[in-house]
Protein backbone atom coordinates (compact mmCIF):
# COMPACT_ATOMS: atom_id res chain seq x y z
CA UNK A 1 0.00 0.00 0.00
CA UNK A 2 1.55 3.37 -0.98
CA UNK A 3 2.25 6.34 1.27
CA UNK A 4 1.82 10.09 0.77
CA UNK A 5 4.39 12.59 2.03
CA UNK A 6 3.76 16.34 1.92
CA UNK A 7 5.91 19.46 2.29
CA UNK A 8 9.23 18.20 0.97
CA UNK A 9 11.35 21.15 -0.15
CA UNK A 10 14.21 21.60 -2.59
CA UNK A 11 16.04 24.68 -3.80
CA UNK A 12 15.47 25.94 -7.35
CA UNK A 13 17.83 24.06 -9.63
CA UNK A 14 18.19 21.03 -7.34
CA UNK A 15 17.91 17.60 -8.94
CA UNK A 16 14.68 15.82 -8.00
CA UNK A 17 16.76 12.73 -7.22
CA UNK A 18 17.41 14.49 -3.89
CA UNK A 19 13.82 13.66 -2.91
CA UNK A 20 14.70 10.04 -2.26
CA UNK A 21 16.93 10.65 0.81
CA UNK A 22 14.34 13.11 2.15
CA UNK A 23 11.64 10.46 1.83
CA UNK A 24 13.84 7.83 3.46
CA UNK A 25 14.54 10.14 6.39
CA UNK A 26 10.84 10.99 6.88
CA UNK A 27 9.78 7.33 6.61
CA UNK A 28 12.75 6.16 8.72
CA UNK A 29 13.79 3.53 6.22
CA UNK A 30 16.94 3.08 4.10
CA UNK A 31 16.77 4.48 0.56
CA UNK A 32 17.11 0.95 -0.72
CA UNK A 33 13.71 0.16 0.81
CA UNK A 34 11.93 2.61 -1.53
CA UNK A 35 10.49 0.64 -4.44
CA UNK A 36 8.51 3.35 -6.25
CA UNK A 37 8.25 7.12 -6.24
CA UNK A 38 5.99 9.53 -8.13
CA UNK A 39 5.21 13.23 -7.87
CA UNK A 40 1.73 14.22 -6.72
CA UNK A 41 2.23 17.97 -6.50
CA UNK A 42 4.98 20.47 -7.24
CA UNK A 43 4.75 24.17 -6.52
CA UNK A 44 6.80 27.27 -5.79
CA UNK A 45 6.85 28.89 -2.34
CA UNK A 46 7.89 32.51 -3.02
CA UNK A 47 6.70 34.05 0.24
CA UNK A 48 10.30 34.73 1.30
CA UNK A 49 12.02 36.38 -1.63
CA UNK A 50 15.52 35.48 -0.44
CA UNK A 51 14.62 31.84 0.30
CA UNK A 52 12.38 30.59 -2.50
CA UNK A 53 11.68 26.88 -2.31
CA UNK A 54 10.14 24.20 -4.50
CA UNK A 55 7.54 22.30 -2.47
CA UNK A 56 6.62 18.69 -3.28
CA UNK A 57 4.05 16.11 -2.34
CA UNK A 58 5.11 12.59 -3.29
CA UNK A 59 3.62 9.11 -3.36
CA UNK A 60 5.94 6.21 -2.63
CA UNK A 61 6.05 2.54 -1.74
CA UNK A 62 8.54 0.56 0.37
CA UNK A 63 9.49 -3.11 0.66
CA UNK A 64 8.43 -3.48 4.29
CA UNK A 65 5.40 -1.28 4.97
CA UNK A 66 5.29 -2.19 8.66
CA UNK A 67 8.52 -0.26 9.23
CA UNK A 68 6.94 3.06 8.24
CA UNK A 69 5.46 5.12 11.07
CA UNK A 70 2.83 7.51 9.77
CA UNK A 71 1.88 10.86 11.25
CA UNK A 72 1.98 14.56 10.39
CA UNK A 73 2.86 15.02 6.72
CA UNK A 74 3.26 11.26 6.21
CA UNK A 75 0.05 9.31 5.64
CA UNK A 76 -0.99 5.96 4.22
CA UNK A 77 -2.95 6.02 0.96
CA UNK A 78 -6.09 3.94 0.84
CA UNK A 79 -6.64 2.19 -2.50
CA UNK A 80 -9.32 3.73 -4.69
CA UNK A 81 -11.42 1.75 -7.09
CA UNK A 82 -11.27 2.82 -10.72
CA UNK A 83 -14.58 4.18 -12.06
CA UNK A 84 -16.79 1.68 -13.85
CA UNK A 85 -18.80 2.57 -16.92
CA UNK A 86 -21.63 0.18 -17.81
CA UNK A 87 -22.23 -0.28 -21.52
CA UNK A 88 -25.44 1.43 -22.59
CA UNK A 89 -27.67 1.36 -25.65
CA UNK A 90 -29.24 4.72 -26.55
CA UNK A 91 -32.94 4.86 -27.31
CA UNK A 92 -32.56 7.85 -29.62
CA UNK A 93 -29.98 10.24 -31.00
CA UNK A 94 -27.61 12.43 -29.03
CA UNK A 95 -26.39 15.72 -30.50
CA UNK A 96 -23.54 17.76 -28.97
CA UNK A 97 -23.22 21.40 -30.02
CA UNK A 98 -19.73 22.82 -29.68
CA UNK A 99 -16.21 21.35 -29.62
CA UNK A 100 -14.81 23.32 -26.72
CA UNK A 101 -13.81 21.58 -23.45
CA UNK A 102 -17.41 20.99 -22.32
CA UNK A 103 -18.50 19.44 -25.61
CA UNK A 104 -15.34 17.38 -26.08
CA UNK A 105 -15.36 15.95 -22.56
CA UNK A 106 -19.07 15.26 -22.68
CA UNK A 107 -18.31 13.23 -25.82
CA UNK A 108 -15.32 11.44 -24.29
CA UNK A 109 -17.41 10.48 -21.27
CA UNK A 110 -20.30 9.23 -23.41
CA UNK A 111 -17.79 7.07 -25.26
CA UNK A 112 -16.88 5.43 -21.94
CA UNK A 113 -20.45 4.12 -21.82
CA UNK A 114 -20.27 2.83 -25.37
CA UNK A 115 -22.46 5.70 -26.61
CA UNK A 116 -21.88 7.91 -29.61
CA UNK A 117 -23.31 11.20 -30.85
CA UNK A 118 -23.33 13.71 -33.65
CA UNK A 119 -21.09 16.69 -32.84
CA UNK A 120 -21.87 20.02 -34.49
CA UNK A 121 -19.10 22.63 -34.63
CA UNK A 122 -19.78 25.92 -36.40
CA UNK A 123 -16.08 26.57 -37.00
CA UNK A 124 -13.32 24.63 -38.69
CA UNK A 125 -10.84 21.92 -37.64
CA UNK A 126 -8.05 23.21 -35.45
CA UNK A 127 -5.36 23.27 -38.15
CA UNK A 128 -7.50 25.24 -40.62
CA UNK A 129 -8.71 27.44 -37.79
CA UNK A 130 -5.13 28.21 -36.73
CA UNK A 131 -4.34 29.42 -40.25
CA UNK A 132 -7.47 31.60 -40.28
CA UNK A 133 -6.51 33.13 -36.93
CA UNK A 134 -2.91 33.74 -38.03
CA UNK A 135 -4.17 35.57 -41.13
CA UNK A 136 -6.46 37.71 -38.96
CA UNK A 137 -3.59 38.69 -36.68
CA UNK A 138 -1.32 39.44 -39.61
CA UNK A 139 -3.70 41.23 -41.96
CA UNK A 140 -6.74 42.19 -39.89
CA UNK A 141 -9.04 39.99 -42.03
CA UNK A 142 -11.66 38.46 -39.71
CA UNK A 143 -13.52 35.25 -40.53
CA UNK A 144 -16.71 35.40 -38.39
CA UNK A 145 -16.99 31.59 -38.32
CA UNK A 146 -13.32 30.66 -37.77
CA UNK A 147 -11.52 32.77 -35.20
CA UNK A 148 -10.27 32.83 -31.60
CA UNK A 149 -13.81 32.18 -30.33
CA UNK A 150 -15.21 29.69 -32.87
CA UNK A 151 -13.73 26.42 -34.08
CA UNK A 152 -12.43 23.09 -32.87
CA UNK A 153 -11.14 23.33 -29.31
CA UNK A 154 -13.15 26.40 -28.35
CA UNK A 155 -11.84 29.74 -27.12
CA UNK A 156 -9.38 28.04 -24.75
CA UNK A 157 -7.36 26.78 -27.72
CA UNK A 158 -5.90 30.28 -28.04
CA UNK A 159 -5.05 30.88 -24.39
CA UNK A 160 -2.45 29.85 -21.85
CA UNK A 161 -4.12 26.45 -21.54
CA UNK A 162 -4.52 26.83 -17.78
CA UNK A 163 -6.02 23.85 -15.97
CA UNK A 164 -6.66 25.34 -12.55
CA UNK A 165 -10.11 25.09 -11.02
CA UNK A 166 -11.49 26.38 -7.72
CA UNK A 167 -14.03 23.57 -7.45
CA UNK A 168 -13.05 20.22 -5.94
CA UNK A 169 -14.39 17.51 -8.20
CA UNK A 170 -13.62 13.77 -8.18
CA UNK A 171 -13.30 13.88 -11.98
CA UNK A 172 -10.41 16.38 -11.97
CA UNK A 173 -7.83 13.61 -12.16
CA UNK A 174 -9.81 11.94 -14.93
CA UNK A 175 -9.67 15.13 -17.03
CA UNK A 176 -5.92 15.52 -16.51
CA UNK A 177 -5.25 11.89 -17.38
CA UNK A 178 -7.30 12.16 -20.55
CA UNK A 179 -5.38 15.27 -21.60
CA UNK A 180 -2.07 13.47 -21.04
CA UNK A 181 -3.40 10.50 -22.99
CA UNK A 182 -3.90 12.78 -25.98
CA UNK A 183 -0.56 14.54 -25.83
CA UNK A 184 -0.48 17.00 -22.93
CA UNK A 185 2.78 17.06 -20.90
CA UNK A 186 2.72 14.58 -18.02
CA UNK A 187 3.65 17.31 -15.54
CA UNK A 188 0.07 18.59 -15.54
CA UNK A 189 -0.71 15.60 -13.31
CA UNK A 190 1.32 17.11 -10.45
CA UNK A 191 2.00 20.80 -11.17
CA UNK A 192 0.41 23.11 -8.61
CA UNK A 193 -0.62 25.44 -11.44
CA UNK A 194 -0.87 23.17 -14.48
CA UNK A 195 -0.98 24.55 -18.00
CA UNK A 196 -0.61 23.08 -21.48
CA UNK A 197 0.10 26.10 -23.66
CA UNK A 198 -1.72 26.99 -26.84
CA UNK A 199 0.80 25.15 -29.05
CA UNK A 200 0.43 21.78 -27.32
CA UNK A 201 -3.27 22.20 -26.69
CA UNK A 202 -3.96 22.21 -30.42
CA UNK A 203 -2.35 18.79 -30.79
CA UNK A 204 -4.38 17.49 -27.83
CA UNK A 205 -7.61 18.67 -29.43
CA UNK A 206 -6.70 16.90 -32.66
CA UNK A 207 -6.03 13.68 -30.74
CA UNK A 208 -9.39 13.83 -28.98
CA UNK A 209 -11.17 14.26 -32.30
CA UNK A 210 -9.42 11.20 -33.72
CA UNK A 211 -10.42 9.14 -30.68
CA UNK A 212 -14.06 10.20 -31.00
CA UNK A 213 -14.11 9.42 -34.70
CA UNK A 214 -12.80 5.93 -33.97
CA UNK A 215 -15.55 5.53 -31.34
CA UNK A 216 -18.29 6.14 -33.91
CA UNK A 217 -19.01 9.84 -33.36
CA UNK A 218 -20.06 11.83 -36.40
CA UNK A 219 -18.14 15.11 -36.33
CA UNK A 220 -19.47 17.89 -38.52
CA UNK A 221 -17.54 21.12 -38.98
CA UNK A 222 -18.96 24.36 -40.39
CA UNK A 223 -22.31 23.22 -38.98
CA UNK A 224 -24.15 25.96 -37.12
CA UNK A 225 -27.06 25.10 -34.85
CA UNK A 226 -29.74 27.30 -36.40
CA UNK A 227 -32.88 25.91 -34.79
CA UNK A 228 -34.23 23.56 -32.14
CA UNK A 229 -37.39 21.54 -32.69
CA UNK A 230 -39.45 21.36 -29.51
CA UNK A 231 -42.47 19.17 -28.92
CA UNK A 232 -44.59 19.23 -25.75
CA UNK A 233 -41.83 20.88 -23.77
CA UNK A 234 -39.12 18.51 -24.93
CA UNK A 235 -36.32 18.58 -27.49
CA UNK A 236 -37.29 16.67 -30.62
CA UNK A 237 -34.65 17.68 -33.15
CA UNK A 238 -32.19 20.26 -34.43
CA UNK A 239 -31.80 22.40 -37.51
CA UNK A 240 -28.33 22.90 -39.01
CA UNK A 241 -27.20 25.77 -41.23
CA UNK A 242 -30.78 26.92 -41.69
CA UNK A 243 -31.85 23.95 -43.78
CA UNK A 244 -30.98 20.45 -42.53
CA UNK A 245 -33.15 18.91 -39.83
CA UNK A 246 -32.32 15.90 -37.69
CA UNK A 247 -34.26 14.27 -34.85
CA UNK A 248 -32.64 13.90 -31.45
CA UNK A 249 -33.70 13.12 -27.91
CA UNK A 250 -30.69 14.50 -26.06
CA UNK A 251 -29.16 17.87 -26.99
CA UNK A 252 -25.92 18.80 -25.20
CA UNK A 253 -25.60 22.55 -25.65
CA UNK A 254 -21.97 23.66 -25.23
CA UNK A 255 -21.71 26.63 -27.61
CA UNK A 256 -19.06 28.72 -25.82
CA UNK A 257 -19.44 32.18 -24.29
CA UNK A 258 -19.49 34.08 -27.60
CA UNK A 259 -22.35 32.30 -29.39
CA UNK A 260 -24.56 35.38 -29.48
CA UNK A 261 -26.64 34.26 -32.45
CA UNK A 262 -27.29 30.94 -30.71
CA UNK A 263 -28.56 32.75 -27.61
CA UNK A 264 -30.92 34.82 -29.76
CA UNK A 265 -32.21 31.71 -31.56
CA UNK A 266 -32.85 29.87 -28.29
CA UNK A 267 -34.64 32.86 -26.80
CA UNK A 268 -36.90 33.11 -29.85
CA UNK A 269 -37.62 29.36 -29.58
CA UNK A 270 -38.84 29.84 -26.02
CA UNK A 271 -35.86 28.33 -24.19
CA UNK A 272 -35.33 29.94 -20.80
CA UNK A 273 -32.36 32.35 -20.73
CA UNK A 274 -31.45 34.93 -18.09
CA UNK A 275 -28.87 37.67 -17.63
CA UNK A 276 -25.68 36.86 -15.76
CA UNK A 277 -23.16 39.31 -14.27
CA UNK A 278 -19.67 39.16 -15.74
CA UNK A 279 -16.65 41.48 -15.99
CA UNK A 280 -15.09 43.81 -18.54
CA UNK A 281 -11.87 45.75 -18.72
CA UNK A 282 -8.42 45.75 -20.28
CA UNK A 283 -5.29 43.71 -20.78
CA UNK A 284 -2.18 44.90 -18.95
CA UNK A 285 1.21 43.99 -20.36
CA UNK A 286 4.50 44.19 -18.44
CA UNK A 287 7.98 42.92 -19.24
CA UNK A 288 8.13 39.37 -17.85
CA UNK A 289 11.49 40.23 -16.26
CA UNK A 290 9.78 42.91 -14.17
CA UNK A 291 7.08 40.51 -12.93
CA UNK A 292 9.77 37.92 -12.10
CA UNK A 293 11.65 40.45 -9.97
CA UNK A 294 8.48 41.61 -8.20
CA UNK A 295 7.46 38.06 -7.32
CA UNK A 296 10.86 36.38 -6.80
CA UNK A 297 13.21 39.24 -5.90
CA UNK A 298 16.25 40.61 -7.71
CA UNK A 299 18.19 38.23 -9.92
CA UNK A 300 15.82 35.25 -9.56
CA UNK A 301 17.19 31.75 -10.12
CA UNK A 302 16.97 30.81 -13.83
CA UNK A 303 15.38 27.46 -12.95
CA UNK A 304 12.27 29.19 -11.60
CA UNK A 305 9.25 29.30 -13.95
CA UNK A 306 8.04 32.65 -15.32
CA UNK A 307 6.27 34.33 -12.41
CA UNK A 308 2.50 34.69 -12.21
CA UNK A 309 0.09 36.76 -10.12
CA UNK A 310 -3.56 36.80 -9.12
CA UNK A 311 -4.99 39.99 -7.61
CA UNK A 312 -8.42 41.07 -6.37
CA UNK A 313 -9.89 44.31 -5.06
CA UNK A 314 -13.32 44.94 -3.53
CA UNK A 315 -14.98 48.30 -2.97
CA UNK A 316 -17.51 47.70 -0.20
CA UNK A 317 -19.09 51.11 -0.68
CA UNK A 318 -20.01 50.52 -4.34
CA UNK A 319 -20.23 46.72 -4.26
CA UNK A 320 -17.92 46.54 -7.26
CA UNK A 321 -14.78 44.46 -7.65
CA UNK A 322 -11.71 44.50 -9.86
CA UNK A 323 -9.44 41.54 -10.40
CA UNK A 324 -6.77 40.04 -12.62
CA UNK A 325 -7.90 37.20 -14.84
CA UNK A 326 -6.31 34.69 -17.20
CA UNK A 327 -2.76 35.80 -16.44
CA UNK A 328 -0.35 34.71 -19.19
CA UNK A 329 3.32 34.64 -18.14
CA UNK A 330 5.70 34.72 -21.07
CA UNK A 331 2.74 35.31 -23.38
CA UNK A 332 1.24 37.70 -25.90
CA UNK A 333 -1.92 39.80 -26.17
CA UNK A 334 -4.08 38.63 -29.08
CA UNK A 335 -6.96 39.92 -31.17
CA UNK A 336 -10.03 37.84 -30.24
CA UNK A 337 -12.97 39.36 -32.11
CA UNK A 338 -15.71 37.17 -33.55
CA UNK A 339 -17.94 39.87 -35.06
CA UNK A 340 -17.05 42.47 -37.70
CA UNK A 341 -16.54 46.00 -36.41
CA UNK A 342 -15.57 45.09 -32.85
CA UNK A 343 -12.21 44.84 -31.10
CA UNK A 344 -11.72 42.20 -28.39
CA UNK A 345 -8.43 41.32 -26.71
CA UNK A 346 -7.30 38.21 -24.88
CA UNK A 347 -4.05 36.61 -23.68
CA UNK A 348 -2.17 33.55 -24.90
CA UNK A 349 1.00 31.65 -23.96
CA UNK A 350 2.88 28.75 -25.48
CA UNK A 351 3.95 25.78 -23.40
CA UNK A 352 7.44 27.23 -22.83
CA UNK A 353 6.08 30.67 -21.89
CA UNK A 354 9.15 32.22 -23.47
CA UNK A 355 7.84 35.59 -24.67
CA UNK A 356 9.53 38.62 -23.04
CA UNK A 357 6.08 39.87 -22.00
CA UNK A 358 3.63 39.01 -19.24
CA UNK A 359 -0.02 39.94 -19.64
CA UNK A 360 -3.26 39.63 -17.73
CA UNK A 361 -6.82 40.82 -17.94
CA UNK A 362 -7.65 43.60 -15.47
CA UNK A 363 -11.42 43.64 -15.25
CA UNK A 364 -14.28 45.11 -13.22
CA UNK A 365 -17.59 43.46 -12.46
CA UNK A 366 -20.74 44.59 -14.30
CA UNK A 367 -24.40 43.68 -14.07
CA UNK A 368 -27.96 44.76 -14.77
CA UNK A 369 -27.42 48.33 -13.56
CA UNK A 370 -24.73 48.73 -16.22
CA UNK A 371 -26.70 47.01 -18.97
CA UNK A 372 -29.64 49.39 -18.56
CA UNK A 373 -32.22 46.69 -19.28
CA UNK A 374 -33.75 43.57 -17.80
CA UNK A 375 -33.81 41.86 -21.21
CA UNK A 376 -32.02 38.47 -21.19
CA UNK A 377 -29.52 39.53 -23.86
CA UNK A 378 -28.80 43.00 -22.50
CA UNK A 379 -25.33 41.88 -21.41
CA UNK A 380 -24.57 40.82 -24.98
CA UNK A 381 -25.48 44.27 -26.24
CA UNK A 382 -23.33 45.84 -23.52
CA UNK A 383 -20.36 43.80 -24.75
CA UNK A 384 -21.02 44.84 -28.35
CA UNK A 385 -21.17 48.51 -27.38
CA UNK A 386 -17.73 48.39 -25.76
CA UNK A 387 -16.22 46.36 -28.61
CA UNK A 388 -17.50 48.83 -31.23
CA UNK A 389 -16.14 51.75 -29.24
CA UNK A 390 -12.78 50.01 -29.12
CA UNK A 391 -12.87 49.41 -32.88
CA UNK A 392 -13.51 53.09 -33.49
CA UNK A 393 -10.81 54.16 -31.04
CA UNK A 394 -8.34 51.78 -32.69
CA UNK A 395 -9.00 53.51 -36.03
CA UNK A 396 -10.07 50.35 -37.86
CA UNK A 397 -8.32 47.28 -39.13
CA UNK A 398 -8.80 45.64 -35.71
CA UNK A 399 -6.02 47.75 -34.25
CA UNK A 400 -6.55 47.97 -30.50
CA UNK A 401 -6.80 51.15 -28.45
CA UNK A 402 -3.95 51.28 -25.94
CA UNK A 403 -2.52 53.57 -23.27
CA UNK A 404 0.49 53.60 -21.00
CA UNK A 405 -0.52 52.52 -17.48
CA UNK A 406 0.76 55.74 -15.89
CA UNK A 407 -1.26 57.83 -18.33
CA UNK A 408 -4.43 55.85 -17.58
CA UNK A 409 -3.95 56.65 -13.90
CA UNK A 410 -3.11 60.30 -14.56
CA UNK A 411 0.36 59.79 -13.05
CA UNK A 412 2.57 60.64 -16.01
CA UNK A 413 3.35 59.33 -19.47
CA UNK A 414 5.28 56.52 -21.04
CA UNK A 415 5.79 54.63 -24.25
CA UNK A 416 3.37 52.08 -25.69
CA UNK A 417 5.02 48.66 -25.92
CA UNK A 418 2.84 45.68 -26.75
CA UNK A 419 2.90 42.27 -28.41
CA UNK A 420 -0.62 42.85 -29.80
CA UNK A 421 -1.08 42.40 -33.53
CA UNK A 422 -2.19 43.86 -35.92
CA UNK A 423 -1.12 46.87 -33.82
CA UNK A 424 -2.18 49.52 -31.28
CA UNK A 425 -3.49 53.07 -31.47
CA UNK A 426 -2.89 55.40 -28.52
CA UNK A 427 -6.27 56.24 -26.92
CA UNK A 428 -7.91 57.50 -23.74
CA UNK A 429 -9.13 54.12 -22.49
CA UNK A 430 -11.33 55.43 -19.69
CA UNK A 431 -13.67 56.88 -22.33
CA UNK A 432 -14.54 53.41 -23.58
CA UNK A 433 -16.32 52.42 -20.35
CA UNK A 434 -19.06 53.78 -18.12
CA UNK A 435 -17.50 56.08 -15.51
CA UNK A 436 -18.06 53.63 -12.65
CA UNK A 437 -16.22 50.85 -14.49
CA UNK A 438 -13.21 53.06 -15.26
CA UNK A 439 -13.15 54.25 -11.65
CA UNK A 440 -13.16 50.67 -10.35
CA UNK A 441 -10.34 49.69 -12.69
CA UNK A 442 -8.22 52.60 -11.47
CA UNK A 443 -8.98 51.83 -7.83
CA UNK A 444 -8.07 48.21 -8.39
CA UNK A 445 -4.75 49.00 -10.08
CA UNK A 446 -3.74 51.32 -7.23
CA UNK A 447 -4.64 48.61 -4.72
CA UNK A 448 -2.66 46.01 -6.69
CA UNK A 449 0.42 48.21 -6.30
CA UNK A 450 0.12 47.86 -2.51
CA UNK A 451 0.54 44.09 -2.83
CA UNK A 452 2.90 43.98 -5.82
CA UNK A 453 5.32 46.88 -5.51
CA UNK A 454 6.34 47.87 -9.01
CA UNK A 455 3.08 46.83 -10.69
CA UNK A 456 2.40 50.48 -11.54
CA UNK A 457 5.23 51.08 -13.97
CA UNK A 458 6.09 53.23 -16.96
CA UNK A 459 6.93 49.93 -18.69
CA UNK A 460 3.31 48.72 -18.49
CA UNK A 461 0.79 49.13 -21.33
CA UNK A 462 -2.99 48.73 -21.20
CA UNK A 463 -4.82 47.36 -24.26
CA UNK A 464 -8.60 47.27 -24.76
CA UNK A 465 -11.11 45.87 -24.57
CA UNK A 466 -11.47 42.59 -22.64
CA UNK A 467 -15.17 41.70 -22.76
CA UNK A 468 -15.31 37.90 -23.12
CA UNK A 469 -14.36 37.01 -19.55
CA UNK A 470 -17.41 34.75 -19.17
CA UNK A 471 -20.86 34.28 -20.60
CA UNK A 472 -23.26 37.23 -20.28
CA UNK A 473 -26.17 34.79 -19.91
CA UNK A 474 -27.15 31.64 -18.08
CA UNK A 475 -29.51 28.95 -19.35
CA UNK A 476 -31.22 27.78 -16.13
CA UNK A 477 -31.15 24.05 -15.47
CA UNK A 478 -32.38 21.77 -12.74
CA UNK A 479 -30.67 19.24 -10.50
CA UNK A 480 -30.86 16.74 -13.36
CA UNK A 481 -28.88 19.28 -15.49
CA UNK A 482 -31.72 19.67 -18.01
CA UNK A 483 -33.10 23.03 -19.05
CA UNK A 484 -35.93 24.16 -16.79
CA UNK A 485 -37.96 25.08 -19.84
CA UNK A 486 -37.31 22.06 -22.07
CA UNK A 487 -36.57 18.45 -21.23
CA UNK A 488 -33.76 16.80 -23.15
CA UNK A 489 -31.80 20.07 -23.45
CA UNK A 490 -28.58 19.97 -21.39
CA UNK A 491 -26.90 23.40 -21.20
CA UNK A 492 -23.24 23.02 -20.24
CA UNK A 493 -19.92 24.80 -20.01
CA UNK A 494 -19.01 28.46 -20.21
CA UNK A 495 -21.52 29.37 -22.88
CA UNK A 496 -24.42 28.14 -20.74
CA UNK A 497 -23.11 30.01 -17.70
CA UNK A 498 -21.80 27.04 -15.71
CA UNK A 499 -18.01 27.21 -16.03
CA UNK A 500 -15.10 29.61 -16.12
CA UNK A 501 -12.14 27.98 -17.83
CA UNK A 502 -10.93 24.82 -19.54
CA UNK A 503 -11.01 22.58 -16.47
CA UNK A 504 -14.37 23.69 -15.07
CA UNK A 505 -15.95 23.45 -18.53
CA UNK A 506 -14.58 19.93 -19.05
CA UNK A 507 -15.88 18.87 -15.63
CA UNK A 508 -19.31 20.29 -16.40
CA UNK A 509 -19.42 18.42 -19.70
CA UNK A 510 -18.65 15.20 -17.84
CA UNK A 511 -21.47 15.86 -15.36
CA UNK A 512 -23.89 16.29 -18.25
CA UNK A 513 -22.73 13.08 -19.93
CA UNK A 514 -23.18 11.17 -16.66
CA UNK A 515 -26.67 12.67 -16.31
CA UNK A 516 -27.61 11.45 -19.79
CA UNK A 517 -26.27 8.00 -18.93
CA UNK A 518 -28.35 8.04 -15.75
CA UNK A 519 -31.45 9.00 -17.69
CA UNK A 520 -30.94 5.91 -19.83
CA UNK A 521 -31.73 3.90 -16.73
CA UNK A 522 -28.29 2.82 -15.53
CA UNK A 523 -26.24 3.60 -12.44
CA UNK A 524 -23.20 5.77 -13.18
CA UNK A 525 -19.99 6.18 -11.15
TrEMBL record:
Residues 277-469 form the FAD-dependent protein C-terminal domain. InterPro entries: FAD-binding_protein, FAD-depend_C, FAD/NAD-bd_sf. It comes from the Bacteria. Signal peptide: none annotated. PANTHER family: FAD/NAD(P)-BINDING OXIDOREDUCTASE, FAD_NAD(P)-BINDING OXIDOREDUCTASE FAMILY PROTEIN. This is FAD-dependent protein C-terminal domain-containing protein.
